[in-house]
Amino acid sequence: MMKTMRAACMLLVLFLVGCQTELYTGVSQKEGNEMLSILLSEGVVATKEPDKDNTVKLMVDNAQIAFAVDALKRKGYPREQFSTLKEVFPKDDLISSPLAERARLIYAKSQELSSTLSQIDGVLVARVHVVLEDQNLRPGERPTPASASVFIKHAADVALDSYVPQIKLLVNNSIEGLNYDRISVVMVPSSEVRVTAQGNQFESILSIQVTKDTASHLIAILVFLVLLVIGSNAATFAWCRRNAKRG
């Protein structure tokens, strides 16, 4: 009897696990928690599991993949990975020209600024583009001052226009030789296009939340398990009764 129940539970667990697929892998613990919170708040059946190198992976119901990807995309997830100063300037790198070194330094700072701006609530995408002052000038030519352009795509329900002066000041103080008036900021609201997915419709079967697509499969397995238990009990009863008559 116990073996039968154990087998039934294993079948049920395998069914529930088999209905899920990997959505994202190699996600940091912090970002994984944030993404899982978003998915659960959107009604997505999702779980978080350990992955290699101290990262995690997110699992979702097969029928909810499109809806889950769209829900995370609208919130700016997964976050873009930006280069760091350590990555741009490796220790074993060869010595280059001063201009090339400055260009790489500016690029690294642009990456760090983009990463910093991405942390503002409501920001989905952030880019910082810097144009250096031209050093190769002919005699009599006036140099074009350095300039910077900031592009920010944000959630439609978040107003970030009041942050423009602070954003310009942040960029101005981070890059040497850049004038405040030569910094432009472009704010673009995201279009809220929601995907209507069948995976967002649920049914409750014995207090288990499942999608409509998998409900029939779960019912079939539960019926099979019930019949298995009944058959096992009947066989056990018949065996005991036969032994009692022989005794």
UniProtKB/TrEMBL annotation:
Keywords: Cell outer membrane, Lipoprotein, Membrane, Palmitate, Signal, Transmembrane, Transmembrane helix. The chain crosses the membrane at residues 218-240. GO terms for biological process: protein secretion. Residues 21-187 form the Flagellar M-ring N-terminal domain. Its main location: membrane. It is found in: Cell outer membrane. One of its GO terms (cellular component) is cell outer membrane. Residues 1-25 form the signal peptide. It is a lipid-anchor. PANTHER family: FLAGELLAR M-RING PROTEIN, YOP PROTEINS TRANSLOCATION LIPOPROTEIN J. Belongs to the YscJ lipoprotein family. This is Lipoprotein. It comes from Vibrio harveyi (Beneckea harveyi).
